[in-house]
From TrEMBL:
Positions with biased composition (Low complexity): 108-117
Organism of derivation: Hylia prasina
Protein encoded by which gene: Ina_1
GO CC annotation terms, alphabetical: cytoplasm; intermediate filament; postsynaptic intermediate filament cytoskeleton
The organism's place on the tree of life at top rank: Eukaryota
Full protein name: AINX protein
Region (Disordered): 104-130
Similarity comment: Belongs to the intermediate filament family.
GO molecular function: structural constituent of postsynaptic intermediate filament cytoskeleton
Length: 130
């Protein structure tokens, strides 16, 4: 009975050793998978950090470009306003000259029948140094 019990204990021990080796192999396999997943995750995170850095650079460049365009637009708007003021001043001068001319040339009816002149503004291209 003791030999049978000892044999049974050896078989159980062998079964437990086989089971333990099997579990050890499964554990090592899971450890490798975990390490591979961590490496992939770290590589993906590094790639995403690079993408974020590039997007932040693009955003910064776009903001700078927008600021530059805004400054150029404001410069052009200032030039336009100055030209509008000059045009208004010249128009006033010309209207005053016409009035003087019309009052002084009462004997020339053919000149009075001419249509009043119209003035058009042709914009020039300006390049900004900013």
């Amino acid at each position: 009975a003791s030999r049978r019990e000892a044999g049974e204990c050896r078989r159980q021990l062998q079964a437990r050793l086989v089971e333990m080796e099997s579990l050890r192999g499964a554990h090592q396999s899971l450890e490798r998978q975990l390490q591979e997943l961590e490496e992939r995750h770290n590589a993906e995170a590094a790639g995403l950090q690079d993408t974020i850095g590039q997007l932040e650079d693009d955003l910064r460049n776009t903001k700078n470009e927008m600021a530059r365009h805004l400054r150029e637009y404001q410069d052009l708007l200032n030039v336009k306003m100055a030209l509008d003021i000059e045009i208004a001043a010249y128009r006033k001068l010309l209207e005053g000259e016409e009035t003087l001319f019309n009052m002084g040339s009462g004997g020339l009816p053919s000149l009075n029948s001419l249509p009043s002149p119209t003035y058009s503004f042709q914009p020039r291209s300006f390049s900004s140094s900013t």
